[in-house]
Amino acid sequence: MSATKDEDPRIHGISSSIRVVPNFPKPGIMFQDITTLLLDPKAFKNTVDLFVERYKDKNISVVAGVEARGFFFGPPIALAIGAKFVPLRKPRKLPGEVISQKYVLEYGTDCLEMHVGAVQCGDRALVVDDLIATGGTLCAAISLLERVGAEVVECACVIELPELEGRERLNGKPLYILVESR
């Protein structure tokens, strides 16, 4: 599902605030840079508000933000809906005991880690990231959360690259996005 289909007037401002950087981080990649969205207080607020409006009545108990850009959107969403925020980090970034999940990216492999005990069996989780491409990162996040008994209610991303078909890799897990790549 996408907010663009709802024709919310805030979507245009969000979309137009995202800078596309050709050939980054390697030739052929059209990098969707959300740092320019963060520089626009109205677009940034509208982004968070759209997610909060969607999730405020869904009994979400944990918002899991994917490193690093999920950290920009996850905490304000969590605060606004009364949920805890759990960072899903790259290896060796979290102190203490962690569980890990390896995954494949469009240009290599990586791993996500989460603190043991941060999420409880029965928690209702929302996974937040800035973008879905091939879906590998979101699949790893879902796996981490489900391994400890959480119910992943939905994944939420600002941007989708539909041509990479990441949505199809989520095994039917709902995905909500605000804009499709340009």
Explain this structure.
The structure is a single chain. The protein has five helices and nine strands; from the N terminus they run αββααβαββββαββ. It starts with 9 loop residues before the first helix and ends with a strand. The strands form three sheets. A five-stranded parallel β-sheet has the order 4-3-7-8-9, with helices on both faces. It has 182 residues and is an alpha/beta fold. The longest helix is centred in the first third of the chain and has 15 residues, at 41-55.
Strand order within the widest beta sheet: 4-3-7-8-9
Q: Per the principal axes of the C-alpha atoms, what is the gross shape?
A: globular
Order of helices and strands: HEEHHEHEEEEHEE
Rg, please?
15 Å
What's the helix count?
5
Structural class: alpha/beta
Give descriptors for this structure.
about 180 residues; alpha/beta; two-stranded antiparallel sheet; single chain; about 25% helix
Q: Can you lay out the helices and strands and say which pair or pack?
A:
Elements: H1 10-16, E1 19-22, E2 30-33, H2 35-38, H3 41-55, E3 62-66, H4 70-81, E4 84-88, E5 98-105, E6 108-115, E7 124-132, H5 136-147, E8 151-160, E9 175-180
Parallel strand pairs: 3-4, 3-7, 7-8, 8-9
Antiparallel strand pairs: 1-2, 5-6
Helix pairs in contact: 1-3, 3-4
Summary of the model, kept short:
This protein is an alpha/beta fold and 182 residues long. It is 27% helix and 32% strand.
